[in-house]
Write a structure and sequence with these properties.
The protein is mostly helical. The chain folds into two domains: 162 residues, no CATH class; 75 residues, no CATH class. The protein is built from 13 helices and no strands. The radius of gyration is 18 Å and the shape is globular.
């Protein structure tokens, strides 16, 4: 889970839901969310749904609630991801988490991770279609928000197969933004490279062209390394 400000403390409700394990001991949200996959999510879900829907609640708490619910393949969690992606710049709980190395907002990176890794729960919950729509919503804004390498969590075969057009459109928009020199504040190139590589098998001609276009847009060393590893070392030299 994300880092929060050093002085931030969860309120009693959030502490009980995501900072207390199933033995009643203090724990981190990551551990609580993972442990709940064995069935404990049932007793924590309603409290998190209430917290997520409370516009007066702590934004950090609402964000963590969304991550937990999406991780558990909950339809309300997935719906919240879709809603967040529909207006990312207006999201009240955006900016509650920052990458510790680059101090960049990674709200949507954590949502991508939650949606992608909920794969093992969708059969139990009957929410495969809702997961797909949440993934699609995030893919559609991947040229605008930071996903970084957590973009890879959206690239399971079933998502790639259903979202080919959305992935390629996001790449095309992202390359155009890079080529125009638009200020971004995050490494767009690396997540575009991951999308291109994911489509290489099903759309080889498009992927080869997209690699060349992305490399020409000077996407940064990390993206060039990603492209070179999958598409040929000559791309490093452009």
């Amino acid at each position: 889970m994300p880092d929060t400000a050093s002085r931030w403390e969860p309120d009693p409700v959030l502490r009980a839901l995501l900072f207390t394990d199933f033995d009643g001991l203090s724990a981190e949200p990551d551990d609580v969310i993972a442990d709940a996959l064995d069935g404990g999510y049932v007793e924590r879900t309603q409290g998190l749904v209430t917290l997520l829907g409370d516009e007066n609640a702590d934004p950090a708490g609402r964000f963590l609630a969304c991550c937990a619910l999406a991780s558990w393949a909950d339809p309300i969690g997935y719906a919240a991801v879709v809603e967040a992606a529909a207006a990312p710049d207006e999201l009240t709980w955006r900016g509650q988490t920052y990458d510790r190395f680059h101090s960049q907002d990674d709200t949507f990176a954590h949502l991508a991770e939650a949606v992608g890794r909920s794969r093992d729960m969708v059969d139990e919950r009957g929410t495969a279609a809702e997961r797909l729509e949440a993934a699609r919503a995030l893919i559609r804004i991947a040229d605008r928000v930071r996903l970084d390498r957590r973009a890879d969590d959206l690239l399971y075969p079933e998502i790639v197969s259903a979202c080919r057009a959305d992935l390629s459109a996001a790449v095309d928009r992202g390359i155009a933004r890079l080529a125009a020199g638009a200020p971004l504040g995050f490494d767009l190139g690396v997540q575009l490279a991951l999308f291109i590589n994911a489509l290489a098998e099903s759309r080889p001609a498009w992927a080869a062209d997209a690699r060349q276009r992305l490399a020409a847009a000077r996407p940064g060393d990390r993206a060039l390394r990603e492209l070179a590893e999958s598409g040929g070392s000559s791309l490093r030299l452009m």
